[in-house]
Design brief:
- The protein is of the alpha/beta class.
- The chain is built from 14 helices and 15 strands.
- It has a ten-stranded mixed beta sheet with strand order 5-6-4-3-7-1-8-14-2-15, sandwiched between helices.
- It starts with 9 loop residues before the first helix and ends in an 11-residue tail after the last helix.
Amino acid sequence: MRHLNRFYFVPVFLFCVWARSLHQENQNAPRPLFDEHNKEHWKMQAQWILKNKVSSTLNKRTAKNVILFLGDGMSITTLAATRVYLGQKYGHMGEELKLSFEAFPYTGLAKTYCVDNNVADSACSGTAYLTGVKANSGTVGLSAAVKRGDCDGQRGGIHAVTGLIDWAQKAGKATGVVTTTRVTHATPAASYAHAADRRWEADTDLPPDSHCEDIALQLIRGSVGSQIDVVMGGGRKNFLSRTLKDAQGNQGYRTDSLDLIKEWQFNKKSRGGAPKYLYNRTQLLSLDFKAYDSLLGLFASDHLPYHLEAAEDVPVLSEMTQRAIQMLSANKNGFFLFVEGGRIDTAHHETKARKALDETAELAKAVEAAIKMVNPEETLVIVTSDHSHTMTYSGYSKRGTDILGFTNRLNASDNLPYTTLSYANGPGYKPHEKFQRHNLMMDDMNNPDFTYPSLVPISRETHGGEDVAVFAKGPWSHLFTGNYEQNFIPHAIAFAACIGPGYTSCKL
């Protein structure tokens, strides 16, 4: 594992210090207050939380900066399991800890369904929380008047919807998009593109004789995409013709003759800008940000590799986030930055729970790194997810049991062990022998590619339909409490930042 830093447990550490100081004042205490077997531990913990909530004041300043973090597929179950995963890594039991953003003062629940589907995909959900309009499954940046695959519905702009990136640009703010997936993947695409099918990432993906623009082309030539100041992630192949190869020798994917990377550089320079294109971590970490005003970083031909598998020259999410903030902060009007931990989702689809939890930990690291770089009084930070997954967390295990291992209570009624984490469906389904369950004792569960058990055999695990958590900190963060439709999120962000055509705090 690379670049592992201890970013995660600040809230618990502060409580430890506070409890220890109280214990020192009370020398007659029978045992340390930070002891779960001592009833005073739980009373003090609850009182500490209560006093913090009572003493907090509402921040109603205009949000100069906004950072929206999105853990793709980061269900509440994923959050709970990741706490234990990280805690056990550092010698704790884990359940008692918090991820960095779980310490934010305000939390809500967002309803994720699409207009046409009860379980969302990343395209319709991305359109909801980035533009404020709910859409049909598989469509990006279009209203629900357009069905998936309807190229005619995409053209002309009648049904196109724009959102936070566009609103921030019109307000004179700098904008950025950072992801661990392809920058043309459904989630980041929803911030700048309009596509009747999320799969239309390059011209190669379009239907025959189609006159629709692909997503990569919209990032380079679109009215919103071309104005984004910082773009970082993967997906180089979608910007290069098949006749071209990138710096690593990977062939392009486009069937046209375009080199959209060079076109991006030319376009930025022609407008008087100072752009910089990057393709590895060394270039990113050594970059003089004061010398450039826009950045395109494509660090892989496809998605960025999983953190557990990545080579040293692939940047991690926290590094990309930090560099994006450095560059965007130069704008005196502030900035809007969208950051996606996208490979949580792909790991869940493969029922590779170890990778999913590790990618969630990387998102928590990126959030903590960002918080340290901005003024919390003028920066609104939101952390949420687009949808859930079917992973469950069960079994009545004793505290300290390996979250990625077997439950340690009782075997199932077939006398075989079962894992704490499992999936309702997916590729982790193991064929039965004589109507008996597969014996997981025969498998190497320490392998990051171990596929956790699934009930229903399917080549790719599905999303889940339950609500997702929304964590908020900064100006007007109290707006994000309660239960609401997912498309409410960008409206509340725009209100706090005084951007967009709707009701804002500047109009009070």
